[in-house]
Amino acid sequence: MTDLIRVCGLTKRYGTKTVLDNVSLSVPKGGITGFVGANGAGKTTTIRAILGLMPLDAGTVELFGEPFGINSSQSVNARIKSRIGVVLDTCPYIGDLPVKTTSSIMKAAFRGWRQGRFEDYLDRFGLDPQKKVKDLSRGMGMKLQLACALAHEPDLLILDEATAGLDPLARDEVLDILREFVADDMHGILISSHITSDLDKIADTVACIDGGRIVFDLPKDVITDEMGLAKCRTSQFEQIAASGAYQPNTMKFIRYEYGIDLLVYDRFAFKRSFPDVACERLTIDDYMQLTLKGETR
Amino acid sequence: MKAAILSEFSAIKNVLLQQFAIYLIVGLVIGISMGTTIAMVACISAMAPILMVFTFAGYDNMNGWERFRATLPVARESLVIARYLNVLISSIATLVVAFVIAMVLGQLSPVLPLDAESVQTIADEMRHPLTVLGGGFAGMSLILMFSSLLQPFILRYGLTKALRWIPAALMVLFLGVTLILPEVIDAPQFIADFATWVEDPGNIPVVIAGLAAITLGAYCISCAGAIALYRKKEL
Question: Which UniProt keywords apply (chain A) (predicted)?
Fold first, then answer.
């Protein structure tokens, strides 16, 4: 089945600094890919590359099975971008204009614009059409972006920190909308977020970028259902290390003052082998911490 | 292309309407104080292109609008062409508005606080509306040519950075013209001859056609250059 997004080997350099290093990523139909990483890791740069907002030194971007880039023709741009809803990390609409004028701009740009649908989202989000964009809070600005992104009935949503600035209730509401969106098997979402608990709730796959390189790209269930986090004392840690349960260089752990957090690849097998060691479910945040900051043995 | 033009025009529609209201006031002030409609139409028509260029450039700098605009279903060249067309359309619309204000002023001149000489001047101008239009067209064309110089820089580097480059570019252009022009024509004599020739209202259509051709030529060359520069811009 064709992926909605398939990027291979994206590389971008500024002088001697490599900001994207052989980045590969995909978003399948019916799936939500969460994209995580620290500030400046390359999430927004990757999204800009996918949207053809910057020239690349190497790599390819395919959207809906079709090559796409900064110099794609008008017909390719119209065909591909009309199927994408974009939410950027800050509300990008012209501050002096009222919310309703934003819809006029979007209506002119998108043939599939549904004014009624846009107005429904404004109602649902409690957005005043007369209010100027510059007077919206960050959270309201993100909701307006989401309303605009959904009102032209896209097949793919590309969301850069879409839930940032939203209160917990509003975040849950947005996550519900995203779940509704991917209920259609032809739809897909790429969502970058610092709030990994949101991705715990909705992502099917999680990719992590660090220093411009993808450090892991795994089904979320593998992280949250199969893997675990063992809370060990030093003696237990040494016992586990000596048991041969881990291949060399696969033990990932973080030392704390009163113990060691150890990444467990198979939580159930680990519990059978080491019943005295507390092993809890792993979150995306735990896995990211262990992968990016942990020691390896 | 239509999507690019209309989406950008939607953003400045209200600005344009506000400007028309301002032009009405400015037009009446200039027309009454100077006692002429030709100068008034020329002034307003000359203001529009540069105001629109700066309005669009200001919007581009606002909240990352330029980046978001590039995510809309339009290609980069369409974005640039739409920008040029919107500046041109807004300028022509302003010329029409200024001309209408002049005609209204002409009709109202006997009841306005004008001296007899000014009333007579405006009455004379009303007998040659094409001259009034020609004055506006000349003002608009000159500034459109100036904006042809500005826009590629503004689109590629943004307003703030472009304003650092533009004085240097203008200086080079000015030096080039002052060095080359005397080699080609006797400028003072040419200007004197042209002024005499253009006083004949029958020559105004020729002036308008000539200015239109030169301005559109410069505008198209500028647009092509801007497209080439904008294609590589990182957003």
Answer: ATP-binding, Nucleotide-binding, Transport
